[in-house]
């Protein structure tokens, strides 16, 4: 694995060293995990924003609902529609 260096503030380095010592893990692994988590958070933030934009436009929302309905009939799982009828057992 090739590596490189990055510059961070002393406070950030001190916190990273503390985490490394407390978790008995290399600083590089902690940084890699933090970056992966941040990347994942940004992805889901973008997904949420896309849904918000879609929900703000009635035509887009209707098209989405129609597509979901079209795919829903492919399930053929025999389950009751949501909300489930509690009397069925």
Which range does the strand content fall in? under 5%
The helix count comes to 3
**Helices and strands, in N-to-C order?**
HHH
End-to-end gap: 57 Å
* DSSP E strands, number: 0
Which structural class do you get from the secondary structure elements?
Answer: mainly alpha
What do the pLDDT scores average to?
90
Question: What is the helix content?
Answer: 55-70%
Q: List low-confidence stretches.
A: none
State the domain count: 1
Can you summarize the main beta sheet? none
Instruction: Give Rg in angstroms.
Output: 23 Å
Q: What coarse outline follows from CA principal-axis ratios?
A: elongated
Task: Describe the protein.
The protein has helices at residues 10-23, 27-56, 58-72. The chain is mainly α and 89 residues long. The protein has one domain. The longest helix has 30 residues, at 27-56. 0% of the residues are buried.
What's the gist of this structure?
The protein is mostly helical. It has helices at about 10-25, 25-55, 60-70.
What structural keywords apply?
single chain, 89 residues, mainly alpha
Task: List the SSEs and their pairings.
Blueprint: H1 10-23, H2 27-56, H3 58-72
